[in-house]
Give the backbone structure.
Amino acid sequence: MAAGKFGPASGILLLDGYNLLANKVTGLREKASSQLTDTTGIGDTFEEQTPTGLTTLEVAQEGGFFDTSTTGSHAAFNASVPTSPQATVRTLCVGFAGQTTGYPFTGFEGAYEQDYSVTAEMGNLQKADVTYTMTGARSAGLILQPLATKTADWNTESTSVDNAASSAAGGVGFMQCTAASGFSAFVGSITHSTDDTTFASLIAFTDNVTSPYAERKEVSGTVNRYLAFSGNVTGSGSITIFCGFSRS
């Protein structure tokens, strides 16, 4: 990945297959906070705080338009604020460095939509702000397939992501599909290779051609040095896919 600074055009915000930046979000924030406890005692001359080992994760989006179209913000958020302990979790991917192979993104496990706020004001279009709180892990990874529309079988082996060495503790893959039409089947796979020539399947996502949708899938064991994405379709049509992987 090329080092450098990035501007607003480099944001990524994908939730359950909804590309929420299409609603013209004006602010995007990812925050991780270490929980501390006061361990100050008699004899100390300064207040002392010690980490408990727990981390609070939060993602917030601000200023996006309230949009009631099929793939707009209201479809993504309506009736999704948890009302019970068994409320549905969301699959969330966030990035700040752009849609480029090998560039960073973050995927979240156990993302709950905590706040959904719609605002109307004179002289402006309605806006929607959302805050997500996580109950699971934060998975920092690299993009294997930038969000793009495809019309036939493809793979990214010619632009594979090089980790410099293999890893032994598995990882987690994220796939987001924002649009699909025509195909009767689609299977997306993360593949890996030791030599950047011969690739084998590492993760096969569920066959699905109904959009929007997203999937998070874990794998254990060895992950080879090189990673790529493969898309296999049946029939004629188009599909818009994002995929990334985080090594454990």
In short: The two ends are 19 Å apart (CA to CA). The longest helix spans residues 73-77.
